[in-house]
Amino acid sequence: MPTKTLTVQQRKSIFHALVEVQDSRTLTVADSKKEIAARFHITKEQLELIEKEGLAKDWPPLT
Question: Which distant-in-sequence residues (6+ apart) come within 8 Å of 33 by Cβ?
Answer without folding.
Answer: 18, 44, 47, 48, 51
